[in-house]
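In this section we walk through a basic example: taking a raw amino acid sequence and producing a predicted 3D structure, encoded as discrete structure tokens. The instruction is simple. Fold the sequence below.
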Amino acid sequence: MKSNKKFHTLDITLVAMFAALMAIGANITSWAPFLQVAGVPLSMQPFFAILAGLLLGSRLGAVSMFVYMLIGIAGAPVFAGFSAGAAVIFKSTGGFILSYIVTAYVVGKMVEAKKEPQLSTFMIASFVGIFLIYFIGTNYMYLAVNYWLSAPMSYGTAWKVMLWFAVKDVVFTIVGGFLAPRIYRSLQRSAYFAQQKNRTA
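The resulting token sequence is shown next.
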């Protein structure tokens, strides 16, 4: 959904909500340890990052992910394992945190490009989003462990490690792709977003 460059009250609320959802998604197994499959924790971060782009659009979606990153860098324990600080960005999984910003922006742009986005638009955008997350995150992990973390790993091994997580993320991507259109249209019918459209018309 497009909006002018000013941030309004609901914009800030939505950005804060998705930043909070990312924090919850990063540590969901800490509260619900049973949410694991074959020992792989069911992180909800890719799901919420893609959903942010689908529902908030490129600008607010990317801002919400950027705010989430800043909150963690500032010291709030919102990263996986309740970790925090700038050092997390330079660890092997730091690329995934960065990928969420790019993903939300690109996914949002894909939805915004359609005047009346259909289910196919949301599904395609969702899969582009999960591809970006894994492409950026896995390549960053490979570079990190080989060049500044002194824990050599082959490129193929890096992708094999991530395949365990990819299965559950593909499932969540499909679920999100199906849920997003209904939520999106509900938001579009709201008085607030109708006003936003009029401002940008």
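Looking at the output, two observations stand out. The two ends are 12 Å apart (CA to CA). The chain has one domain: 9-193. In the next section we compare this with other chains.
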